[in-house]
Write a structure and sequence with these properties.
By secondary structure, this protein is α+β, with helices and mostly antiparallel strands. It is 19% helix and 17% strand. It has one domain. A 4-stranded mixed sheet has the order 1-4-3-2, covered by helices on one side. The chain binds zinc ion (ZN).
Length: 109
């Protein structure tokens, strides 16, 4: 069973709130976590398929077919996410107010 990721989103952002340029695989990881933030904060209960996030793990060098599920903790506002297929999972903190925070998207339009 893989371990639990604990991610502070601000570690991946530059001073303007954009994804910071991080060379190598860490950048892919940053994109992955921002996609999960958009998924978890999406205001529509019927999430459009373009927002679905595929698991990034490759157990046995084969891409995992799992689609990430996520949940918002109402008390801490931490985003909990997990892959129902391989069990990869984690928490994302300090995502509120980032570019990928889609809460209240409808009101802003
Ligand atoms: Zn998986």
């Amino acid at each position: 069973m893989p371990g639990t990721w604990t991610t502070d989103l601000t570690h991946f952002l530059d001073e303007d709130g954009n994804l910071a340029f991080i060379p190598g695989p860490a950048f892919r990881l940053a994109e992955y976590f921002t996609a999960i933030v958009a998924l978890a904060s999406h205001p529509d209960p019927d999430i459009p398929s373009s927002f679905r996030v595929r698991c990034r793990r490759r157990p046995g060098r084969r891409p995992c077919q799992g689609m990430i599920d996520c949940d918002l903790d109402f008390e801490t506002e931490a985003i909990g996410w997990w892959c129902p297929v391989c069990g990869d999972n984690g928490y994302i903190y300090n995502w509120q107010g980032s570019l990928w925070d889609l809460r209240g998207m409808e009101e802003r339009q």
